[in-house]
Amino acid sequence: MTVIVVANPKGGVGKSTLSTNLAGYFASQGEWIALADMDKQQSSHAWLSLRPPALPPIETWEVDLENPAKPPRGLEHAVIDTPAGLHGNRLNIALDLADKVIVPLQPSMFDILATQEFLERLAKEKAVRKGAIEIGVVGMRVDARTRSAEQLHRFVEGLKLPVLGYLRDTQNYVQLAAHGLTLWDVAKSRVEKDLEQWQPIIQWTNGAGKKA
Question: Name one Pfam family in it (predicted).
Fold first, then answer.
């Protein structure tokens, strides 16, 4: 089983979008997947309540912050959505559970600076340095061909962390989320460009590039 934590202490960078669509991908593959939400607002779990019952199931995983435990035995993947301002005990719990951490980041200098300390801390974590936890960055609401994307890539490269991919700014995510859906729950022709952008992210979460 692999636990994937989606984290960035800065708000509004797309954590829930990444978490829900990642869970939707694993569900579409017929895997037993659970989605946890460490945010008090419980946005991802609220999204789950909107999900049509006829779609591939995604289980709710309640993470008890007072007595954290591994997810149910037998799960193939678990995704943990985390809150803005993630630090202290919540961050420690998330890292204790994680096999992989995805950091969504918008390619503006303001977002980069606001996230820099968090990325530097992750890079220094003992479990990260020893390869027990893999870290990857996803550029959100960005065109990979722009100077902004190049700037983001240079910044993250300096921390020796991989940029897994870039997701464009599109209303597809907003419209689908309103109905408890993901990219993998609708006709491919409707979201073809978005599915293409997700391929390197999916490959990484499935183990591509994993350290020996």
Answer: CbiA
